[in-house]
Amino acid sequence: MALGYERRGAPVPQAKTRSRRPPAARLRTAATHRYPPHMAVHVDAALPIHALTVSDLDRMIEAGVLTEDDRVELLEGVLVEMSPEGPPHAAVIARLTRHFVLAVEGQGLGVRVQHPLRAEARSQPEPDLAVTANAFSWTGHPTSAVLVVEVAQTSLAIDRGRKAGIYARAGVSEYWIVDVAAMRIEVYCEPGPDGYAVMVSHGAGASLTPAGFACPPVEVDELLASG
Q1: Which pLDDT band, with edges at 50, 70 and 90, does 153 fall under?
Q2: What is the tally of structural domains in the chain?
Q3: Fewer Cβ neighbours under 10 Å: the N or C end of the chain?
Q4: What is the mean pLDDT of residues 149-174?
């Protein structure tokens, strides 16, 4: 017997009412709640990955899929979240920026801080600091540099591995990794298609001078001094 009719004067239970919202709208709401946009996910290494190109990245930015607020960089076809920047990380970048900006004056070079480097077709990292010959170009990002510096607090593995390979293939003459926890600077040079041929680690009391341009030495103790 259908609900909504009476039988012998007894009340008949009424069917529970459900949301009249269209199914698609409910799905969109659930997706928004469960999966925030641009949330980092871990993918099974066995799964096939569609590698992105720098051109794909450009189109994503133009379409509004990614914005300047999204802290990601393209590394070998994969969009990777950039590490959060703590006070020591920021302090080292600020000190190096001041040092190199004064040093390159009049040498036809410029200093770029956390800006894209169009290193190869599937890689556009954003190094903490880069000294380049076309730092002020209006039409495109630099494709290489005479010096790239990455400041590592939580990103040491990727800076030594994937990023070192990208910078070497892009012909970056010299690559520094500032290891904040170990109070050391690793200097990579002699780039090639298989990576850098030489790495020298400098600790307390050491002074470093870039090979690609005239510059006063960088004192490790001063650069990594707290306070």
Answers
A1: confident
A2: 1
A3: C
A4: 96
pTM comes to 0.79
Residue 80 lies in a domain: no
Residue 91 is assigned to a structural domain of this protein: yes
Q: pLDDT tens, 95-137?
A: 999 999 999 999 999 999 999 999 999 999 999 999 999 888 8
Question: How far from each other are the two terminal CA atoms of the chain, in whole angstroms?
Answer: 81
pLDDT digits (tens, 9 = 90+) for 28-72: 333 333 334 445 556 666 777 789 999 999 899 889 998 878 889
Name the burial class of residue 132, with classes exposed (0-12), middle (13-18) and buried (19+) by CB atoms within 10 angstroms of its CB. buried
pLDDT band for position 9 (cuts 50, 70, 90):
very low
Contact 97, 131 (CB under 8 A): no
CA-based nearest residue to 126, from 110, 104, 149: 149
In a domain, 68, yes or no: no
Residue 67 token pair = 């914005």
In the numeric block, the tokens 């599937």 are attached to 122
Long-range contacts of 203-210 (CB under 8 A, 24+ apart): 208/176, 210/131, 210/146, 210/147, 210/174
Range of the domain at 187: 87-223
CATH number of the domain residue 219 falls in: 3.90.1570.10
